[in-house]
Amino acid sequence: MQITLSVATSIRICMASALLLMLSVPAQADLPKAAMDDYVWEVLDKPVYPNWGENCSSEDERIYQDCLDKSLMIYNQRLIKKWGLSEYISRKLNKTIIKVPNHDLIILMDDFAEGEKELRYVYLLDHYDADNNWLYLSGQIYETNNTVLIDLDSGFKQEFEGSHLTFSPDMTYAATVKVEFPGEENVMIWKKDKSDAYQYDEKNNRDYDKFRQHLKFYNGSEDSPMVRKVEVEWITNESLLVDFYFKMNDSDTAAYRVRFNYVKTDSASDWQMIPIK
Q: b/e per residue, 232-263, with b = 16+ CB within 10 A?
């Protein structure tokens, strides 16, 4: 959203020198760069990060890992209790156990070691959609952040690459974003198949070069800034808005928006990406 004129003016004055410096960096001559009036700003809330593991510290790798495992278990257990799902979900060390109501089905989500150093791919409870009875988990290792959706009515389970999972109004499509690594951002659109699972089609990523150019139009410098916030919204079944927010400096309280609109002209066409200025 666009903030009020007085706040926006104040922010622009404070950031003018930084912006002009950023835009003065030499770049490809054929790529236009954003002017001051092209930027839309939003004041961001201070992020709240899960505090599990913050008290774990030991030079002994095994002791440190045991502390992380216990902290993660406690973090998940508190969310289960908060959501009123203790009858169906429990968290043990390195394992989330999910009983699907009205079904003889138990879903096990095991954390697992990956790579030579046995770094753990862990499942964090992310949020609960009470209206649909959907449970979302986040699969994490390093900066990688994937999403697991579990329908507690039917037992349907699927892991999606990326975060910020959202569905089109008719559930035909799903969308996720990849924002873990600066310079490698991406939007992924998935389509439901005959088995009700969602499949990602690489051909829907054919506009990726244009996607990167639109980011560079605003970011300017060769150094790719980190995404600070993402908003994903389905306008219709065939129109998706994705907003990325970036800061010019880590200490800034406001971020500028880079917007994309993904559309289908008809049900048989491929998705097209439209950069929005």
A: bebeeebebebbbbbbbeeebebbbbbbbebe
Number of domains in the chain: 2
Q: Confirm whether 169 is domain-assigned.
A: yes
Same domain, 22 and 103: no
Cβ burial of 172 (10 Å; 0-12, 13-18, 19+) is: middle
Asked, for residue 153, whether it belongs to a domain, the answer is no
Single-letter amino acid, residue 127: H
| 120: containing domain | 47-142
Same domain flag for 261 and 165: yes
Classify residue 104 by its DSSP letter. S
The verdict on 74 and 185 lying in the same domain is no
Which pLDDT value is given to residue 103? 82
Site of tokens 């995404």: 227
Per the CB < 8 A criterion, the answer to whether 31 and 213 are in contact is yes
**The residue type at 62:** R
When pLDDT is cut at 50, 70 and 90, the band that residue 16 belongs to is very low
pTM over cut 0.85: no
Choosing from 87, 114, 142, the residue where a domain stops is: 142
For residue 90, the tally of other CB atoms under 10 A from its CB is 16
